[in-house]
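Order emerges. One example.
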Amino acid sequence: MKRILLTLTMAFVATTLYAQNPYLSLEGVVAKADGSVELLQPTTTLTVDLTVTCEETLCGPYARYAQKFLGVRAPLTDKKMWSITGADVALAGEEVLAPQTLAAPSIEFAQYAEGKEEFATLAIDKKSFLAPTLEDAARAAAETIFSLRKHRMELITGEAGENVFGEGLQAALAEIDAQEQAHLELFFGKQSKKSRSYRFVVAPEQSKLQYIVCRFSEEAGILPSSDLTGSMVVLQIIPDEQVACTIPEAGPKATSTATCVVANRADCVVMAASDELIRKELPIFQYGRRVVIALPTRK
């Protein structure tokens, strides 16, 4: 009977403490109502979420003729660059067990790109027995672009005829837009953005305040922490100098006591190279302190 009362008292104390301060937890061996015991060791686990975006440009086959025929410079080489576009740090839930990729990559195509890796193929002049040079093909593509723009303006202003209106006009303009984009790709290439999110799990240690979450490279994106070709992505933890606690400790005359751990508030900062990505204040048990409290006794 005494064991059951003690168990109920401990459960009541744990509930009361949590209601007063969610950063408190009992520590040690606690007896259950069924006679078994449970070892409580309060710890905090953190998750670091990173979102990286890759901006990729594929050079168009007529790129070096863009300024000559269109008056605008175009990228002359393929280019791929990764950047960290989002970060978060939070308390981990019970379902978080290991590092993982949060979701499948999301792809967002920019102007002059429709999600296809191949560039448009222009029609061949069947009347000529000679294959056009690259410059002649670029000139023909530029002339087509200007012709399409002229036809678009004629449709909009009504110069193309009085019978093109309503849905027919919209369909014609959409087709002209598609044809123009396909020809512009030949000069300015394809541009796309791909985003991917990652989650890393960190279990803080009492004697350690800095953790290498992963490494990052503008050329390759997220890399393992052991890959020295990338710069470090670091989680820095800055605990408060004093642990705030409003729970009174047990006096020397207390006959029944329990040990609690008070989590300390800490600034959790995610850094990439010298850039601060995010800063949050979170409670962490590993940097807290133990408090002995008096349990209520039955009179």
Summary: The radius of gyration is 33 Å. Residues 2-44+204-294 form one domain. The chain has two domains: 2-44+204-294, 58-79+111-192.
